[in-house]
User: Fold these one by one.
Assistant:
Number 1:
Amino acid sequence: MAIRVARKPSDAYQHGSLRQALVQAGLKLLSEGGAGALSLRAAAQLAGVSHAAPYRHFRDKDALVSAIAEQGFLLLTEAMQAELGRCRHEDAPRRLGALGQGYIGFALAHPGYLRVIFGGVIDKTNPPEGLLIAGQRAYDVLRGVVARGLEAGELSGGDPDTVALACWSMVHGFSMLCIDQALPSFVDRKTQLKIGAQMVRLLAVGVQTPAKR
Amino acid sequence: MAIRVARKPSDAYQHGSLRQALVQAGLKLLSEGGAGALSLRAAAQLAGVSHAAPYRHFRDKDALVSAIAEQGFLLLTEAMQAELGRCRHEDAPRRLGALGQGYIGFALAHPGYLRVIFGGVIDKTNPPEGLLIAGQRAYDVLRGVVARGLEAGELSGGDPDTVALACWSMVHGFSMLCIDQALPSFVDRKTQLKIGAQMVRLLAVGVQTPAKR
DNA sequence: CCTACCGATCGGTAGG
DNA sequence: CCTACCGATCGGTAGG
């Protein structure tokens, strides 16, 4: 009688669940090894299938990258909205602070998503429609808070897009500096979150209208 | 008589000038094709030499990457100091604005340098000393302006490093969003610089002490 | 600074 | 979803 070897991980995939497993594998490669570590073959190996299997679910490498990025945008949007829901204040500056906290928290928890979205891995010449929509939805959450704050007179500093872009730039820049390990190494995760919170408050004050300060 | 072919580019290199040519070639690859387009072989080909030649000047690929990054830090420092020299105001908020303009202007003009410095191309586990020093010098320019502004009472918002990090994060985040083409494509270069300038003023107001607003 | 070579990895396809 | 194969590219070394 033949010795029964342990089931291979591949046996666990069916009905297209391999697709999500490959997304997770790609994300893990990005998080641990950076953009250069992401390949279809490595993702397939991590998922326990042959290197030809991914082509049953993704037309090419770009398709996998886009799928990861789209999921990243969706989760980022959820993270920001969750933080917004937890914020009991109704004034725009504090709601902006909550958004920033959500963004930074998500970035530090899931660096792979930010690398694939912003790290130049995506081919921008021909982005799939779903990815554009997901990105727009994430931006609209921020823009909505800013626009309402400007209308209510709680914020100032320019048109909605300029102010929103300023907020986005700061939390995004801080997130990327943390992820890219550009900050001194003695700044640990806990300190990063603390500095992030302080910075977000600073920005909230900066865009607040002078009369309300 | 043998036909005399046109001189190969390789004939132009001597006395170690190939080293700088390889740095420039690597920079061009990074600027045009992103982090994934940088390889020792491609850089050698761009410089017109065999793929083994670079090893006469760089121990391995990491050494070339570090050399590009170090030069990037030096030029970034120069760009910030030049903009600071052109700033005729003495108050910290406006000097911070000049620094930010210098940073964004350099980033948009030389995206390859920022990609190699912050794009996760460098192996952070064992950075050469020269690179660390160059990075520290660039940061010190910013930190100096912030620290003097806090001492003079022109700025507020926290300790020097937190305020400096907030400023750095914003201009860095905006620069990366522009470079990574994460902004809508209808935002052209000119608009980017205009929005950048507006954003920098916004931040300058944000970190200004309330009494001086 | 060159040619020639090494092993490894990659994206992708053929054919089942 | 598999094995087997393709051409291309990579970092790096031997030897001159």
Number 2:
Amino acid sequence: MKHKSLENDACPVARSLEAAGDTWSMLVVRDAFAGKRRFGEFQRSLGVAKNILTVRLRKLVALGVLEQVPAADGSAYQEYVLTEKGRGLFLVLVALGQWGCGESEFKLVERKRGKAVRLELRSEDGRKVGLDEVSLASPRA
Amino acid sequence: MKHKSLENDACPVARSLEAAGDTWSMLVVRDAFAGKRRFGEFQRSLGVAKNILTVRLRKLVALGVLEQVPAADGSAYQEYVLTEKGRGLFLVLVALGQWGCGESEFKLVERKRGKAVRLELRSEDGRKVGLDEVSLASPRA
DNA sequence: CCGTATCCATTCCGATACTG
DNA sequence: CAGTATCGGAATGGATACGG
């Protein structure tokens, strides 16, 4: 049977994995957040085969994470920039980064003041909430 | 060439994708957070082939996300439970869930008070920080 | 019930060559 | 530079059969 597409799964986590659930997509997004826009920039940064990159870029465009805009330098090519939806993946990226660093040495700073910023769970009234104090009431999670 | 392992990549995002960057691993983790522990529970919930599940469980154990413990019911089998490290993936799961729901209808509640909880960026002194106010100063991101 | 083993189809990925 | 085309090998996934 064909590999099940998660795109229409009831669980939002599963749906999100459509964009995050392969080796390269999130790394492309990471590079996009780092300001990369051109095919060659992604290709050299990631060391991915060009045909694979082509497919991934197309998929991210189809998912509405990236959009193609005419190159700023007047060349005949496209640049790939994050959409509003794509920028929403920032929290996912930060969560992955924090976890990969064991919760301590991940460097995320507020531009204006240069102070460290962290990802946290907060209740509606702004109180900090611990990982073990919450329950997931999401569909099929 | 062999598929590049991200395990030793300089970027923490890339390293985390070793655990999150395939179709099934994060869904297994999601189910583990939902209280599932047994091979068959995962298998029926995910509809994944048993051989693939075996491989994924082994990988998550090897990565220190899950650990095997003797079954509570005295059967000869194992149960798979989240380690401390594995529980750290909760923020990643929440980030994916929030994104999949377009930032609104994701249900995460504080157990004690039943109030909604959200994932946010906060500066060291507790101020809420917007997505566009921060910069990533992480290696290779 | 909990896996392991095997087989086969599909997909993914990397390398290379090629085009404009 | 920015892709497209093609190829082969590796990994992934599904189905099923089997054994503890």
Number 3:
Amino acid sequence: MVQRLVELARCPECGSPHVVRDEDMGEFVCNECGLVIREDMLNRSPEWRAFTLEEERAKRRTGPPTDYARYDKGLPTTMWITHDAFGQPLSSKTRHQMWRLRRWQIRSGIYGKSRNLLKAMNMIQRLSEKLHIPPSVKKTAAIFYRRALDKDLVRGRSIASVATAALYAACRLTETPRNLAEIAEASLRDKKEIASGYRLLVRRLRIKMPIHDPLHYLTKIAEKLRIPGDVLGLAIKILNEAKKERITIGKDPRGVAAAVLYIACQLNEKEVTQQRIAETVNITEVTIRNRKKELMRKLNI
DNA sequence: AAGACGAAAGTGGTTGA
DNA sequence: TCAACAACTTTCGTCTT
């Protein structure tokens, strides 16, 4: 099936000129931000062409080409996509994903929520591509969204915000390092909106989020700044002490990790500035200083 | 000149009434 | 739902190396 793409005016959301008309899906989609501009556009033209009467008779099927009242608007067939928006053939991996999405769509199609789900899946798909989120995490997000839909949590909220929140929750659960700011920015939605959606999902779906261990960040920073193993070893020792003294609870694990590593570097006379550590984990030097002060005091260093 | 330190004011999230 | 609260950030002046 050939996709016909027609350039439109600028996207009302992000101002991007890359707004594309996707006739097969019956949608206008912004290639920059993934905004679906007119999702209920109806393609009334026949999906086939005939040049002779015989041809027309041969190609015509029963009923009108598309029917808006049908639950799926013929979507199970239109989801058979073999080329991307630029006319390039899809990779086998993406084709496989599309195939799964299609099969899944056919299965759920008889239910009233299918359209909602399809839109959400599109949203999650676009966001995942934009943020380079691995397929396994994306799958988790999809499952979260489905469960949210089952529990009627989407009612009264926008599909986009819940879908984005589901993706964020999936990232948190799988410890995929994407923060709220990045995801909110990619979805072009308010951080608050995503955050409240996230909390709703965690609460109502009873998702058990892993507690972020400073150790996780410790090794990460050490690797990035090429901290030698013995210094890292010392840092881990200090961290374990801190855990015993219960200094780490309720604090930003990144701050604790950063401070512990900084102390270890100083004790080993390894020159690393607070600033360098701070920027690798996206916190401020002040936080490192505060944590450091507390650690030094309570651990008698 | 760069890095460290800390005070003060502001922000966003959590908690408990 | 709202106010209080702790943690964290931003900003900025000062001190040290």
